[in-house]
From TrEMBL, chain A:
Protein's name according to its UniProt entry: Dissimilatory-type sulfite reductase subunit alpha
InterPro entries (UniProt xref): DsrA (IPR011806), NiRdtase/SiRdtase_haem-b_fer (IPR005117), Nit/Sulf_reduc_fer-like_dom_sf (IPR036136), NO2/SO3_Rdtase_4Fe4S_dom (IPR006067), NO2/SO3_Rdtase_4Fe4S_prot (IPR045169), NO2/SO3_Rdtase_4Fe4S_sf (IPR045854)
Primary gene name: dsrA
Tagged with keyword NADP: no
GO annotation, cellular component aspect: sulfite reductase complex (NADPH)
TrEMBL record, chain B:
BP GO terms, sorted: sulfur compound metabolic process
Entries under Gene3D superfamilies matching the protein: 3.30.70.20, 3.30.70.3340, Sulfite Reductase Hemoprotein, domain 1 (3.30.413.10)
InterPro entries for this protein: 4Fe4S_Fe-S-bd, 4Fe4S_Fe_S_CS, DsrB, NiRdtase/SiRdtase_haem-b_fer, Nit/Sulf_reduc_fer-like_dom_sf, NO2/SO3_Rdtase_4Fe4S_dom, NO2/SO3_Rdtase_4Fe4S_sf
A Gene Ontology molecular function term of the record: heme binding
Keyword terms of this UniProt record: 4Fe-4S, Iron, Iron-sulfur, Metal-binding
Annotated NCBIfam families: dsrB
Chain's gene name: dsrB
Pfam family, one: NIR_SIR_ferr
Protein name: Dissimilatory-type sulfite reductase subunit beta
């Protein structure tokens, strides 16, 4: 084994102290102990450059444009600006790979991925990046195509990068959570795999993210972090197991239950009976989850399950943080037709945004610019009072279409009544 | 005419998209899909879910360094093979979860993870793993490192990861630029630039698509200009809010600086609809030095805020709910953090963030 000249890393060494697992120790293990000289060298270069960043407090990677054959995205190119100092890692691209819906893996699959990655890459990976991709960090320009070809053969595909539909996320969901109200994985895969072309070939105004959470606890951060948030909910009454509830009250005492459950209900829809039963005003339950989060043994979501869809969430750039807005208060997702309807809606929204969004403008920013009503009319969705916190407070509005709009409202109400 | 050179045949990709997770699920989870009744928290880091069928699945959650080398990954896989039938799951905060339906394997699994250096915890009212970005390790626009900040902080809060001492769960995030890939958190440690970009006018004309750079600026502070006879861009430094939005599309507009790129701390971001509606995080502290390798100044502020929350928060109150109950003046009083003109919003919709009532705590 040729002797390697190790770059000194006095600042990074400090991050090996302390109890939390150290990423520096991991990179050093690759540098020092990996049987493949290429991997030892690449990680030596990486540590050298990272130490240089720590010393100068600056980053030294620049982007570029590369992709695998047939795709336009999915890879984050990284070329070092200090490659002359640390030539071993001067090309250090990341491949974004879509995880299975729900992030379930077998150890066999992860070993298989690790074996391929060792052959072609640095030996460093992350589960997962903030969009939800598996990040294979550190491949050079000669290798990334080989790595992709190899893992693509056994079932893995690239995620999105650039102005395109991005990799989606779904929670642990129905597989292991009693709060689940929908088939999160089916929704995630149905949506994402309908837009495979838009994932691989960036041609939209900017990024577009789908996220699926099985209940309003929204563990996938869908409302704040996705353009299209699908959140499981139910529209009948929640299920209360009075026996289990009374056992909880007996164990904790009435005062504790008043302080921690009854008085904490957002819509003040709970009260405690003299016989310690739980009394719920179901017409005012807003599905704010607290009671079932505290007493999951006694309170369960209802049986008439479905989803609420919010659109337009995103982080800061350019106009400031935006939460998603309710666009569909409730829809069932059970039959094939239900799923088709969901996909059609997503297509409608993406098409409308692709046509009307400005360059680098997220869907939510477009809605902000053109107003929700124009968006709704553009995608063919009727206004609904669940979309708003409260009606407008400004009188600057033209109302000369009022009578027709009111008639449409009454017609819709009549149709809904007849349908139910 | 010479024969055309043999062209290398490239392999066509299989556009399989997102793989089906169902096949990779623990069989007990597959059997009881959508049929879970309730769960119990056995101990920090350990959950048991009970299905209507009566079957149970135990979950053991551990923290890792997130940037995993193949050795560490294989070490974790060995543990999975031995104790969780070879099935694992990752949470959104990069915690790793091992599942088993065999109760007798739970404590040995916890011990195996702890022995291998992976803390078991991160459930319920703990400080769970921090969401973070790529930082100096891999990003092209980072103002700081991310993995390093997280390592330094989690060393400090290691015991809180492994216990249930907080009023409710604490989600922390960190981001190495103001785009904030780390997202909303109960506490977010984010880069805050404090000086306008330094422009290399010799490069702008060739490297940057100038109209789209002009369009990126949130405050319209950038305009095209000729500098030294070359087409470039100039920044109205009085208008500039130092957000760095121009830097990604135009690298010659360097926003990062070893001194003026600093850290700010934001609190009260909460994604959940539990109790209240989701909330955005709020600026509480800025001017914190970007001080590798351990960022002690940032850690000290975070620690102080967490101590106050731990002491003052009621059961189930997330950070934002605690502050909402005690009020912002009290927050600044108990944490000892200065309240400044920079805390007062002046972006669009700012007046919604001002107090238009006589509701004042004395």
């Amino acid at each position: 084994m040729a002797e390697m000249k190790k770059y000194p890393t006095p600042m990074l060494d400090v991050l090996e102290d302390g109890p939390w697992p150290s990423f520096i120790s991991g990179i050093k293990a690759l540098r020092d102990d990996h049987p493949d000289e290429r991997i030892r060298n690449v990680n030596n270069g990486l540590l050298g450059q990272l130490e240089h960043s720590y010393e100068t407090r600056m980053g030294y990677w620049k982007g570029g444009t590369i992709s695998v054959f047939g795709y336009g995205g999915g890879i984050i190119p990284r070329f070092s600006e200090v490659g002359d100092k640390f030539p071993e890692s001067k090309e250090f691209h990341t491949l974004r790979v879509q995880p299975p819906a729900g992030n379930y893996y077998t150890t066999d699959m992860l070993r298989q991925l690790a074996d391929s990655w060792e052959k072609w890459g640095s030996g460093l990976q992350t589960f997962h990046g903030q969009t939800g991709n598996i990040m294979f960090i550190g491949s050079d320009s000669a290798s990334y195509q080989h790595f992709f070809d190899e893992i693509n053969e056994y079932g893995w595909d690239l995620g999105g990068a650039g102005p395109c539909v991005r990799t989606g996320m779904s929670c642990v969901g129905a597989a292991r959570c009693e709060m689940s109200n929908c088939n999160e994985q089916a929704i995630h895969r149905t949506l994402l795999n309908n837009f495979t072309d838009d994932v691989h070939r960036p041609a939209l105004p900017y990024k577009f993210k789908f996220k699926v959470s099985g209940c309003p606890n929204d563990c996938m951060n869908a409302i704040e972090r996705s353009d299209f948030a699908v959140i499981g909910t139910w529209r009948d009454h929640k299920k209360i197991d009075q026996e289990a509830w009374k056992a909880y009250v007996a164990e904790k005492g009435r005062e504790h239950v008043m302080d921690n459950v009854i008085s904490r209900c957002t819509s003040k829809s709970l009260s405690l009976g003299d016989d310690n039963s739980l009394i719920a005003d179901e017409t005012n339950c807003v599905r704010s989850m607290h009671c079932m989060n505290v007493v999951p043994k006694a309170i369960h979501p209802g049986d008439d399950k479905g989803v609420t869809i919010l659109m337009g969430g995103k982080r800061t750039l350019k106009i400031g943080d935006l939460m998603g807005t309710v666009i569909v208060p409730f829809m069932k997702l059970e039959t094939e037709e239900d799923y088709e309807q969901l996909v059609e809606m997503a297509e409608e929204v993406i098409d409308y945004w692709a046509e009307n969004g400005l360059e680098h403008e997220r869907c939510g920013e477009m809605i902000e610019r053109i107003g929700l009503v124009n968006f709704l009319e553009g995608v063919g969705i009727d206004p609904d009072p669940n979309m708003i916190k409260q009606p407008r407070n400004s009188s600057y509005v033209r109302t000369d279409g009022w009578d027709e709009a009111a008639e449409e409202w009454f017609n819709r109400v009549r149709e809904q009544k007849m349908a139910s | 005419m010479s024969a055309p050179a043999a062209k290398k045949v490239m392999r066509e990709p299989i556009e399989s998209g997102c793989p089906d997770g169902f096949q990779y699920m623990h069989p007990t989870m597959r059997r009881n899909y959508g049929q879970w009744k309730y769960h119990e928290d056995v101990q920090p880091g350990v959950l048991v879910h009970v299905a209507y069928s009566g079957e149970k699945i135990y979950t053991v959650r551990c923290g890792t360094q997130r940037i995993l080398d193949v050795f560490t990954l294989r070490k974790l896989m060995d543990i999975g093979d031995q104790y969780s039938d070879g099935y694992i799951h990752f949470t959104i905060r990069s915690n790793m979860e091992f599942q088993t339906d065999d109760e007798s394997k739970v404590q040995p699994l916890v011990a195996a993870l702890e022995d291998a250096g992976f803390p078991v915890g991160g459930t319920r009212n703990s400080i769970t793993s921090m969401s973070h970005t790529q930082g100096w390790l891999h990003c092209d626009i980072p103002g700081t490192d991310a993995s390093g900040v997280v390592k330094a902080m989690m060393d400090e809060f290691y015991d809180e990861f492994k216990s249930w001492n907080m009023p409710n769960r604490v989600h922390m995030t960190t981001s190495c630029c103001q785009i904030n890939c780390g997202g909303q958190g109960d506490i977010a440690i984010n880069v805050q630039h404090t000086k306008p970009p330094k422009i290399d006018h010799s490069l702008v004309g060739n490297v940057c698509e100038r109209p789209s750079v002009v369009a990126r600026c949130p405050v319209a502070a950038i305009r095209p200009a000729m500098v030294d006879g070359k087409p470039s861009l100039e920044v109205d430094e009085k208008k500039c809010i130092c957000c760095g939005a121009c830097y990604p599309p135009c690298p010659p507009m360097q926003i990062n600086d070893h001194q003026y790129t600093q850290l700010a701390i934001w609190i009260g971001g909460n994604h959940s609809n539990a109790r209240g509606k989701p909330t955005f995080q709020r600026l509480v502290a800025a001017g914190i030095p970007n001080n590798p390798p351990r960022w002690p100044e940032a850690t000290a502020v975070v620690k102080k805020i967490l101590e106050c929350y731990k002491e003052g928060g009621r059961d189930w109150e997330r950070m934002n709910e605690w502050v909402e109950r005690i009020g912002w003046p009290r927050f600044f009083e108990v944490t000892g953090l200065p309240f400044t003109k920079y805390h007062i919003d002046n972006w669009r919709g700012a007046r919604n963030n001002l107090n238009s009532s006589t509701h004042i705590r004395f």
